[in-house]
Design brief:
The complex is a heterodimer. Chain A is an all-alpha fold. Chain A has one domain (11-266). In chain A, 77% of the residues lie in helices and 0% in strands. The two termini of chain A are 33 Å apart. In chain A, 45% of the residues are buried. Chain B is α/β, with parallel strands linked by helices. In chain B, helix 4 packs across helix 5 (159-172), helix 5 runs parallel beside helix 6 (189-206) and helix 8 crosses helix 9 (258-266). Chain B is globular and about 60 Å long. Classes of the chains: A mainly alpha, B alpha/beta. Chain A binds chain B through residues 1-4, 6, 11, 14-15, 17-18, 21-22, 25-26, 29-30, 93-95, 97-105, 172, 261-262, 264-267, 269, 271, and chain B through 16, 19, 23, 65, 68, 71-75, 93, 96-97, 99-101, 103, 105, 107-112, 116, 119-128, 131-132, 135, 153, 169, 172-174.
């Protein structure tokens, strides 16, 4: 069969679609688990907002604060998990050697995986929002839609970069790498102010919060949704997020390539399970 | 006529274990290191264009490591590998475009169907989607897979069927070098013959060069133009099947089989070596 004669970058872009299509097919084939995870997300999100609702008389601001936290975290954790677990998943399926033998750049591999993760995460968060809104009243009257969208998209870049860096763990540590990425995700949940302001954390945890991109995404989302702030006043959020994205993605790919070299030198690029 | 070398393996070495390098700069190397295993020990070989070259050996003899070194999945500790004049380390992407591999495990996303798996593989190799959609059913049918199986999850197919889909995957990406790592191990006789027939067809119709590792002596005898016997990571003998058998012949036993030739050169039967490797 003939290979495409498109220019190199176009071929790479087309190849990145292979990951989008494959992940979409996997999502459809594992629909039962998708449903189960979604029901779990709905149940845990509703549990959190009902805790807010139980606090006093006018709980609408608290419910909105918690609702934003739960929705943003559902999105960010989905992006982080699908990117950081891409290697662990392929090891488990036994396809890792075939994907790494393919004549594509690692950037293409990451781009395809990230693109699917962002679109899938957004759709899932929107579905979760629709269900939440059916159960509790979320006051979105002051929401700045453009601002919120920009915060989420710019914030996604940083999370993609962190996810790529975390993906090296299953590459280097064949037995325990997947567990390590799960722990990173848990720590991000703890320190990033998902359900509470980071000011309540001990000092050393606040330092971790300062370097977590999730902290800035959550802050930005609350300011655009609750206070209706526009892009002009979000420089202190957007700048660190943009810098994190611009630095972490190329850095993540570079670190990943070093880990790939190590895995090929030590024979760790094999299936397991 | 000038013979072109499709594969040049020159004094290649690969060790596993005994790693003393630090992963992190602040981490001390562990005191007790596992003893290094020399999986491939100064192996050199040349495979000519359009040749089917066999590597025979027991489990643990280094066959799969050799295939991984050629297929860019491992970095050698010494020596070099060239595919049609391209170095597998320095020109990795060019080399990747030229080869594909079928291993003993079919290695697919088991929940996905053959068509979904093959679409993924062909997109990675830059085959246009419309062409892949047209060719996939044709090749699957040629391999004897019923059309009603094309869109069912692979996990519902037998191992023989899965291995045929793996052959189709390699075929669809038009490799000029096909690496077959025990492709028929564990298959029933019918599936084994189908796969062997397809290998010969790939060579005949697509001018492909094939490197086949196997411990099936009859298969090696039937398919290979030349072969090497690998033992403990080292090549102990190389030649055509007829040459190997002739060299193993004795006045008492003038017409040995390939199995007997294997025993002659290694001092053990394949079964004995596999039992030793397993223990």
């Amino acid at each position: 069969m003939g290979m495409s004669n498109s220019p190199g970058f176009l071929q790479e872009a087309k190849a990145s679609y292979a990951f989008v299509e494959r992940n979409l097919n996997l999502t459809k084939r594992y629909w039962g688990w998708e449903l189960a995870f979604f029901v779990y997300s709905v149940a845990s999100s509703l549990s959190v907002v009902y805790i807010g609702k139980a606090q006093g008389t006018d709980t609408r601001p608290l419910v909105l604060y918690l609702g934003i936290g739960t929705l943003v975290w559902a999105y960010l954790s989905s992006v982080f998990d699908s990117i950081s677990q891409m290697i662990a998943w392929e090891r488990w399926e036994g396809t890792i050697e075939y994907t790494f033998m393919a004549p594509i750049s690692r950037m293409t591999h990451m781009l395809g995986t990230s693109l699917f993760s962002v679109v899938y995460g957004l759709l899932r968060a929107i579905a979760l929002f629709v269900v939440l809104a059916a159960f509790v009243q979320l006051d979105l009257s002051r929401m700045n839609v453009v601002g919120a969208l920009v915060v989420v998209l710019v914030g996604s870049l940083g999370f993609i970069g962190v996810g790529i860096m975390a993906a090296i763990l299953p590459l280097m540590f064949t037995e325990r790498g997947a567990e390590m990425t799960f722990m990173i995700s848990s720590i991000l949940l703890l320190v990033s102010g998902v359900y509470y302001p980071i000011s309540v954390l001990p000092g050393w945890m606040q330092l971790l919060a300062k370097i977590s991109p999730a902290t800035y995404v959550l802050d930005g989302m609350r300011r655009t949704v609750i206070q209706g702030q526009g892009l002009a006043s979000l420089g202190d959020v957007l700048l660190p997020l943009a810098v994190t994205g611009v630095v972490s993605i190329p850095l993540g790919v570079w670190v990943f390539l070093q880990a790939e070299h190590y895995a090929k030198r030590t024979g760790r690029l094999k299936r397991s399970g | 006529m000038v013979q072109t070398d499709a594969v040049v393996v020159d004094d290649i070495v690969k060790r596993f274990g005994g790693e003393r390098r630090r992963i992190l700069p602040f981490r001390r190397p562990r005191r007790e290191q596992s003893a290094p295993v020399l999986a491939v020990d100064h192996v050199s070989l040349r495979i000519r264009k359009n040749e089917i070259y066999g590597v025979l050996g027991a489990n643990g003899s280094g066959k799969s490591t050799l295939i991984r070194l050629i297929s860019t999945l491992l970095i050698p500790d010494g020596g070099r590998v060239e595919i049609f004049g391209h170095d597998v380390i320095r020109e990795e992407k060019v080399v990747k475009r030229m080869l594909n591999r079928v291993s003993v495990e079919a290695s697919f996303f088991k929940k996905l169907s053959p068509v979904e798996n093959l679409m993924y593989a062909t997109r990675l190799y830059g085959v246009p989607g419309s062409e892949a959609r047209r060719e996939i059913p044709r090749i699957l049918e040629a391999l004897g897979i019923e059309p009603d199986r094309f869109n069912r999850p692979l996990e519902q197919m037998s191992r023989g069927m899965q291995q045929k889909v793996a052959i189709a995957r390699a075929f669809l990406t038009s490799p000029v070098l096909l690496l077959l790592d025990e492709p028929t191990t564990g298959l029933d006789p019918r599936s084994k013959l189908d796969v062997q027939e397809f290998i010969l067809r790939l060579r005949r119709d697509h001018d492909a060069t094939v490197l086949l590792t196997t411990h099936d002596m009859a298969e090696a005898d039937a398919l290979c133009d030349r072969m090497a016997i690998l033992e403990s990571g080292r090549i102990v003998v190389e030649g055509t099947p007829a040459e190997l058998k002739a060299r193993a012949a004795t006045p008492e036993h003038p017409e040995p089989t390939l199995e007997e030739a294997f025993m002659h050169f290694t001092g053990h039967s394949l079964e004995e070596m596999e039992e030793a490797a397993a223990s």
